[in-house]
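Q: May I have one protein plus its fold?
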Amino acid sequence: MVMQMDDQWTLELLHRFGDIRKATFECPGCGHIQSIQDFINLNLDSTRAYKDCIGRYVNNLGCEFSVDDGDCPLDNVRIIVLEDGSERKVFNII
């Protein structure tokens, strides 16, 4: 598990991908790789690209994993610490 501040996470995305829409994440439930752009292309909330498997919105993938649903293994996600000190789980960057 990786834990980092929100601004560090955002800078890592920009450094690795240049355009944040190209950032890709791996669903810890099924291993599907998805980008923020994939969610934009489907007119979905792009902030869900690092929290939900796109299978929640696309019928043929068969996965509905979300970091917001109960307990998910911490070794398959990152913990992002927000400015107010609260934490959120996000998919790993690929």
